[in-house]
What we know:
By secondary structure, the chain is an alpha/beta fold. The protein folds into two domains: 2-109, Nucleotidyltransferase, domain 5 (2-Layer Sandwich), CATH 3.30.420.40; 125-298, 2-Layer Sandwich (Nucleotidyltransferase, domain 5), CATH 3.30.420. 44% of the residues lie in helices and 22% in strands. A hairpin with a 3-residue loop joins strand 1 (2-9) and strand 2. It is globular.
Amino acid sequence: MIRAASIDIGTNTFRLLIADVPPAGELIPVRRERIITRLGEGFHSGGRLSPAACRRSLQALDTFSSIIKEHAARAVHAVATSAVREAINGPEFVRAVERRTGIGVKVLSGDEEGRLSCTGVLSSVTAPDRSCILDIGGGSTELILSRHRLPPLVLSIRLGAVHLCEELLRSDPPSQQEQSAMHARIKKALDAALAPDASSPFPAPYPASDMLIGTAGTITTLAAIDQSLNQYDPRSINNHVLSRHRISSIRCRLSAMKREERMRVTGIEHGREDLIIAGSAIVLQIMDRFGFDLMTVSDGGLLEGILIDACRRQ
């Protein structure tokens, strides 16, 4: 059995998983950590990672590096997603990480991100042979069609909660005009990505699957709010089912609150109180587009997928 670590360098949140990886069977988690760094802060205005965001992010990786050494993980698998993938100075940030921490970082394509997320999700929840997986990040959204014994189909869309929030939701609370503009932006992005001439890998008509599974911060936060979790517990998140009506109710309630009020809502992690409005709007439009009334939530995703994939390749 090997003790290994996976790191997800996301647009909004950095996450760490240390687990014992047996030759066969399920991962045995040893330690989980998450730090909201907002690496993608201000990215849309210049296409660069800002110096302040890079400093916060390197400090977070210093912390992760210390935890990894403390737990004597023999292998470290770190990946970066949308913000680093798209930033002009993304390669410079990757080099800075390696110089400072000794951790090598692989920048994932949208397809790679979706494939690994699919692997992690399916290791965490009970799913039918055909399921649609929704992974909403700070800078991109991945739609993944999982098919029994076939490679998953991945559609990566440049549609993320951080970018929507920073560009369009500037009032506190967001104005109706701002929210209308946000909904229009989401619809436009989905229309373009799913158009018949857009070479979308998703077969029409929709839905092409039996179940919708959601993963990543927006969706796990909605599950935590729905259950009024004072302390985040993956066991309460995995396989929790959210109805479209309940998600809409949560979004309407939160969008009428000031940011300070949202920070006091049970289940919202500090740093997500602004993003949850944009993220939940993406969820609702995708549910409507694919005709789903229910969504099963997975705490597992990219972190687990990284380690499972690394184990398979050994």
